[in-house]
Amino acid sequence: MGARVGRRTHVDTVRLHALALTIVLAALLGACTTVGPDFKRPEVPWLADWKGGSLESLAADPRVPHSGQTQEWWRNFKDPVLDEMVVEAQRVNPDVRTAGMRIMEARAQLGIAGSTLYPQVQQATGQALGSGQYREGASATTLATFNAGLAASWELDFWGKFRRSIESADASYFASIAQYDDVQVLMAAQVASLYCSIRTVEATLVIAHENASLQKRSLEITELLFKSGNDSELDVQQAKAQYLSTLSVIPQLEGSLRQTQNALSTLLARAPGPLPEMDAGKDVIPQANLAVIVDMPADLMRRRPDVRAAEMQLAAQSALIGVSAADLYPSISLLGSVGLSATSSGTQAGSWTLGPALVWNVFDHGRLTNAVLVQDARFQQLYEQYQGSVLQAAREVDDAAVGFAKTGEQIALLEETVKAARRSVDIATIQYREGLADFQRVLDSQQTLFSQQELLVNTQGSLIQNLIALYKAMGGGWEPGRSRPVLDDETRETMGERSDWGDLLAAPLPPSGAEAPQNPPGTAKP
Q: pTM score, two decimals?
């Protein structure tokens, strides 16, 4: 009877301890707080009054035709080959694939951060040991011992340390997506720019060959006149010098063409060399109208992927201030373990422990305090970088817009100049044949025609380059990438065989406009 009462008293004591621990735990969880600053989108004082600069002037100019395609702006060029190349580069370029892998890394990091909401230590231990003893003149004795145990430790998120870690990882995840978007924008712009550069060089080569043919005919005329005694050798040598000078331009253009083709091939993850699909539409510089987006200038700047990435990096760093600040306060953990031991002699024993633990680094000599200051200083650095990113974005928009506008004005004048130069060549040639003008007039007019034609073609190419730069500055071209898988099937299969990624490899990207997911891939649901 006494033994039974003793056991009951022991059980009641355990229950009371458990009840008290539950009450303490509930009180602690109810009193949990989150230290550190809450992130707020940084203000850009000048942005509210910025009206778009030269972009606003373009949008208001009735002489500038507008079209409505901005998300896939390269389709405004009506060039199927260019369309296919942009899509290919946005899918297979090594920089794009690397940016996609950074998203996978960020998803895994987010999963690590989410796991801290649960018991951080969950260990199962076991031992099976044999021991023996031998004495001279006596028989040997052996003994086997077996131990098994389970231990757990759960640091309560009393000061929001782990919640801030998740917040930081979440912002870093969205920063990696914004960086992926930025690479998509860059790929579209670089492919279109190189494509148009190739077409511009091809058109310049056509002009060089046409002028070389024209100058060759003039050389042949002077040679005939010289042989007949009606012209001097000076005219022959001058015609020959100009003809050879024009021919010398062609190898340089051909070398530049091949180098530009190599650059475009590299973007497409191909071996260097000409691109067979560009044989169609050769020598024609793509033309497109301006498509001005309807966003307000402030929204235009903030929606750019590089600016969004800077903002998300700032948010991630803000949360790290709270993570460091939490170390200034005591950490409260719940500890528990269960163990069982046995020996080969038949002895058995069990044990358990359960209770809270408190650790407080009271005397750190400024280590923890300065760790908070380090994170705060890094936040301020990123804040200044964000301000610089917005300024740079605005500058790129204005530079490209004014370049597009002024280059268009220059082209209108150059087209008239080329007409006049071509007419000048015709008149000078006729007058020379009729003996009304010397050959120098012919040479001068031919040289003027060649230089003005070359300048016109290069300026036409510059107009398109400025238009591409304007689309890039407006941050267009990343939206279609959100609907494509981040990884191709082969990479996803290879990584899935190497490691247990679960659903992380196939999880789609959030749609455009999503600032933060409710439960991003890899996040523990609290």
A: 0.85
